[in-house]
Write a structure and sequence with these properties.
single chain; 233 residues; alpha+beta; Helix Hairpins; 5 helices; 4 strands; 70% helix; 7% strand
Length: 233
Amino acid sequence: MTKRERNATCMAALIGACLALGAQAAVAAGLYKWTDDKGVTHYSDQMPPDAVNKGTTVFDKQGRPVKKIEAAPTPEQQKAKELEEERQKGVAKLRDDQTRKDLALLQSYTSEDEIEFARGRAISAVSIQIKSAESYTTDLTRRQQELEKQKAALAGKPMPAALENELTSLNDELGRQGKLLALKKDELATISARYDVDKRRWQEIKADQSRAAAVGLEPATKAASNPAPAAAK
């Protein structure tokens, strides 16, 4: 090792020792440890205003760390944090909504037969409405055909105003009944699909409860319906 190298090594060791002693002295006084924009670590009894949001470690007078203050997030980090919090809230809301629906489903039906009975009753009610609308449509169509025959028999002569108005009203009513029938038939399909979903979900919940019971766990739906009692004051 050359003389210059030895001198450089000694100087580095001396500087390191001075920094260590300075840090120990600062810590012993019960101070703050912080890092500036250039990456240099400082110890002081007060935090500079421009270093307050950069994070620090607080030491007691024995040099023991007693508190770590995280650096303030950047605008990008804060935005990302807010987005993640919103996402978590959305997930929690969906989970809570599903739990409430599951509890309502279990309270509504105790067996698959009850679900099928409710399906049949709902379908029957709409089917009656469809049959009534179809019967009414048949009567309207019959009268419409009669009026059309009368109109044709006039061989181009003007039809009496009363009959013309009746024919117009019949055509309008037949249009309304046609739309109503289409809606009711769609409703039948929707009812059947809804009960299919309810039945599948009911089966899934019961299967989950059976699995939980087999390993001695409490199902989520049961826990939600039986909240823990409040602690005595």
